[in-house]
Structure formats: C-alpha cells, structure tokens
Amino acid sequence: MEFSIRKGHKEDMESVYRLIHELAIYENEPDAVKISVDDLINDGFKEDPEFEVFVAEVKGTIVGMALYYKRYSTWEGKSLHLEDLIVNKEYRGKGIGKALYIEVMRTAYDNDINRVEWEVIDWNKPAINFYLSTGATMIENWNLCQMNRKNLKIFLDKHEGI
Amino acid sequence: MEFSIRKGHKEDMESVYRLIHELAIYENEPDAVKISVDDLINDGFKEDPEFEVFVAEVKGTIVGMALYYKRYSTWEGKSLHLEDLIVNKEYRGKGIGKALYIEVMRTAYDNDINRVEWEVIDWNKPAINFYLSTGATMIENWNLCQMNRKNLKIFLDKHEGI
To answer: Any idea where the domains of chain B sit in the sequence?
Structure first.
C-alpha cells in the first residue's frame, strides 16, 4: 500500500481529531476527549505552538498521525514527548505507524534532542513489542499523576492565602 | 521554620543543580544527571525557555525547588508538567514541599491550564500519599517509554532513506 508522511496543517485537524477520538475508544475512554477541532487549530498553529504533528495519507485521506512537543529532563536536558501515535484500524500492519515513528525520531535527532519520551498502556502488547524492538526502554515502576482543573480549583480554594 | 518561595533566577541554578543531584541519589541513580549548571542556565533563561522553576529559601539558602514546563494533552488540551519537586532532606516535614506544590498549582490555574501531570516512583509512599491527599489521581497501568540519543542514532542508521 502506498502512503506518504508530511507535516500536518490547520486543514488536517478535523482528521487528527477523528483519530484522537478513535484512540480514546480503543483505550476504553470514549468520553475522554474534551478538546475540539478548533482547540487543535488554535493551540497548534499559533506563534508559539503547543505541539507539532505528522500525518500519514493514503490517496489523499489521512489515516494516521503522530503528535509531539518539547519537554525537558533535569537528567538528560532537551527532550521530545510523543503524545499520540495513531493509525486507523483498517490501515494497521502496513508500516504506516513505523514510518510516522521514524519521522518523529528523525525530527528529535535533527533538533539535538537527548531523549524521546512517551507513555503506553500496559495491555497494548503489540505497541510495547514494537517500541522495545526499536531500542526504547520501558519503565514500569513509575506512576503517572494527574490533577485536573476541577480538583485544582478545590485544592487551591482550601489553601487560599498561603 | 520561616521560608519563602520565589521564582528562580540564573544565579540559583547551581543550587537547583545540587538539588537535582540529591534527588538522583535518593532514587538510586547517582550517575543519571547528564546536564550541567550551564545547561540549566542556557536552557531555562533564553528567549523561549525550556522550563521555569520556583525555589524555596531559608535564611538566604535555597533548600527546595519545583521545576515545570508546558505540555499538551490531546484529551484535555493545555497541560503543565511538574518535572521535579525537591526539598533538601534536612528541611523536609516543614511544609516547604507543599508550599512549592501550591505555587505550581496556582501558576497552572492562573494560566488556564486544564491538567497538571507528573511522575512518581512507586515506592515513594510519602510522596504518593501527599499527592493523593491533594486531589490528584494516580495512574498505574501506563508505562513510560524512553529512547535516548545513543539508541536513537542506532535506530535511525538502520532506517536511513525510509
């Protein structure tokens, strides 16, 4: 199957949003996507964008994407975070995900990044096996913590004036 | 004990580096810190800085710090990552860590951030208990993946021209 990889533009954000939603369903979190297509356009295509994205196309249709942004490690220095690597389920197993992954890794290398980081759900064995086969390391004894805006407000209200 | 919290400046990076190194030792990774004081100065105090930092002072000495930067979630939108929250071991249990944490959370809230994220090593029960008590959620079924620059080069060399 022929496909091509290119940088994503504003006009692609509807397709990118569709893929984000598809991944959320795959991860059993169908209601998790709180952002909109407009958020992706506003956040990704302003002067100091919050992310960049590669898209994979087959005959003019976007069937995959890799979304990433800069991070910083106090151990390694400049780092790049791969937030999402998604290929539409009808197009898996054709090398499209790997091509997107290579493009992100090449971008990192060319930009003097010292470490690329991402997260994987522990039952997604095909993804884990692929990542390990590329030379990535998986760390199982660190947990992710998150504080959403609602709980942030509750916490701050309790500590006002401190 | 009296302490104060303020934004960190270039001149504080030597103390910040010392704390980063102290945490690496606590986490049984004494050789993990590859960056230098100069890297912190160059990366944190350029036009588009890679991170920001709060420091905690007791009688003019820096005894703690919280280092953070922007991230982006394709579910929640604008996010802030708390990379390190460190208090020198002789000054723990005095509310300094909590004060730094509040300052980061307040910064996130005031900047319309939808989610604050960080990572915690699974045996650091005092830290985990504190985070949970503030309303944070801990996610245990996601694993961190990392690709360092050395393995990045090996991987890309194998896939040159793709």
So the answer is: 4-158
Structurally, what CATH architecture does the domain formed by B4-158 represent?
3-Layer(aba) Sandwich (3.40)
The three state secondary structure string of A86-154 is EECHHHCCCCHHHHHHHHHHHHHHHCCCCEEEEEEECCCHHHHHHHHHCCCEEECCEEEEEEEHHHHHH
Q: d(Cα A104, Cα A64) in Å, to the nearest integer? A: 13
Rounded Cα distance between B53 and B66, Å, is: 6
Catalytic residues of A, by residue number, are 131
A50, A119, A135: residue with CB nearest B70? A50
Helix ranges (H only) for chain B are 13-26, 37-44, 96-110, 125-133, 149-158
Interchain contact, A159 vs B114, CB within 8 Å:
no
CA contacts within 13 A on the Cβ side of B35: 28
Reported pTM: 0.94
Q: Is A139 within 8 Å of B143 when comparing Cβ atoms?
A: yes
The shortest C-alpha distance from B51 to chain A (Å) reads 7
Query: Which residue of A lies nearest to B18 if distances are taken between CA atoms?
Result: A74
Model confidence at A66, pLDDT cuts 50, 70, 90, reads very high
Per-residue pLDDT reduced to its tens digit, B34-90: 999 999 999 999 999 999 999 999 999 999 999 999 999 999 999 999 999 999 999
Nearest to A76 among B34, B105, B121 (CB): B34
